[in-house]
Amino acid sequence: MALCCYEGSAPDEGPSAEANAILVTAGHSAKGRFIVKALFEAKKGFQVKALVDDPFSEQSQVIADMGAMVVKGSISTLERIWLATKGCGTAICCLDPMDIVTDDAKATHERVLNFAEHCHEKKIRNFVLCGDYAELQKLDVDPAAELLKLGFKSVHVVAQPLFCFEDFTERLGGMFVGLSKNSCRMELDVDPKSELPMACAEDAGKIVANCALNPSRLTENPIRVNATARTLEGYAKDLSEATGIQVSYARSASTGRISAKEALQYKQIISAYGTHGQKRMEGIKSKDFLLWAEDVKFSFKEFLKNIRRSNSKPTGNSESLMAMEEMNLLNQLKKVNKDASHVSLSGAAKSIHTMRLSKMQGGSRSCFTQMGRSATLQKGCFDSKTQVDESRSSISMAVDKRMVTHPEINRTPELPIKYTESPRTQKIASSLDSQGHQPEDVDV
Q1: What span, in angstroms and rounded, lies between the C-alpha atoms of 330 and 321?
Q2: pLDDT at residue 282 in the model
Q3: Could you give the CA distance from residue 63 to residue 1 in angstroms, rounded to a whole number?
């Protein structure tokens, strides 16, 4: 499976060819990933394209290994997702918690409609909206009726919560602190009495995939998915019962390993649900949380063990850690760019490391390219449309922070990216090499 990189606006083209692909948004989330999985398991022969926030994250690599094409983008970045929408006949808009404008329901509604209108302009015929129906109904409008007005052949709305059970080991995994062998604590700045509706992403994914693959057979709108509503204390109690690990919940302003932006978003979403007592929202049958927790108890224990292991690693001083990270970057770049000189790769490693530090300190997150991974391409290289100026050539590979830490990539380099040096860089590198500045112990 190969990587292709694209950047910029779509070229001026006529109507697309036969639409034989399905687009899934929020493919990096657990909900999006299980939708992609269900689409491939149906074996209908459709190509699947997924919008993700980070093409090199572990979650994105999982769906890429399934055969999906991953493209950096979201429902808010319409100007950069022309590659994803091209050739698609169906779009699945899987609303992510980060897609919600918590203090403005109208803005969320407009965001969905703008994405749907963009899909219709790209000749997409069928549209499936997967999200919190209560959130969409705050403006007293029928989402399905609004979407049908745009001219889609079929529209389906699958009502399920924004969060899913699987988020406990992914999106919300950063709230587990105070870990020991037999106990842990969940911390989030949320009222202990506030409910958090959730559903099983695996079961919901099959329902959504069925809507996309058989649009004419389903007439019910919205299609509701069974969801469990618990307080965080209630979920902690169920996890304790299912896994044998004593799990507790405590409200804390500390964000733990969750970013401050995401922690604030989650707090606002959960707080908006209010406190109405525990109940179960009825719909198409899906797994209950306690049953899900019993099924995944071994993987949950392994998840907590990995956190303890990472917390026990020696920290060292900041300078040595920075040097170590740059060295790891350099080694990773050598694996995928064997013909490049040591000087140019060192420059690329330093540039990427500087970009990461800027992001950690609150700097803007620049998008150098859109990444696509397709099973139909045997050789990966930069498309001519993605070439950027010389000042950015050293980092145009779009290697993000988790690329060098992902165990699968470190063990078996699967990213055959073609690295092209600029003429100026080649001249400098050749000059330095001839003067003996290149280390003898580095294989270039």
Answers
A1: 14
A2: 57
A3: 12
Tell me how many degrees the CA angle 50-170-22 measures, rounded to the nearest 5: 15
Instruction: Determine the pLDDT at residue 188.
Output: 93
* CA-closest candidate to residue 72, choices 50, 52, 49, 95: 52
- Judge contact between 417 and 337, C-beta under 8 A: yes
What stretches in the chain show pLDDT beneath 70? 1-18, 133-137, 218-220, 275-285, 313-326, 335-336, 353, 355-444
Place of tokens 């050598």: 334
User: How would you classify the pairing of strands 246-251 and 370-374?
Assistant: unpaired
The token duo for 1 is 């499976």
Q: 158 — phi, psi (to 5°)?
A: -105, 115
The two tokens of residue 207 are 């329902």
Among left, alpha and beta (phi > 0; psi -120 to 50; other), residue 93 is beta
Cβ count within 10 A of residue 325: 18
φ/ψ (deg, to 5) at 337: -140, 70
pLDDT at 339: 73
> Residue 49 and residue 73: Cα distance in Å, rounded?
11
* SS3 labels along the chain: CEEEEECCCCCCCCCCCCCCEEEECCCCCHHHHHHHHHHHHCCCCCEEEEEECCCCCHHHHHHHHHCCEEEECCCCCHHHCHHHHCCEEEEEEECCHHHCCCCCHHHHHHHHHHHHHHHHHCCCCEEEEEECHHHHCCCCCCHHHHHHCCCCCEEEEEECCCEEHHHHHCCCHHHEECCCCCEEEEEECCCCCCEEEEECHHHHHHHHHHHHHCCCCCCCCCEEECEEEEEHHHHHHHHHHHHCCEEEEEECCCCCCCCHHHHHHHHHHHHHHCCCCCEEECCECCCCHHHHHHHCHHHHHHHHHHHHHHHCCCCCCHHHHHHHHHHHHHHHHHHHCCCCCHHHHHHHHHHHHHHHHHHHCCCCCCCCCEEEEECCCCCCEECHHHCCCHHHHCCCCCCCCCCCCCHHHHHCCCCCCCCCCCHHHHHHHHHHHHCCCCCCCCCC
Tell me, what's the pLDDT at 325? 67
Q: State the Cα–Cα distance between residues 63 and 200, nearest whole angstrom.
A: 18
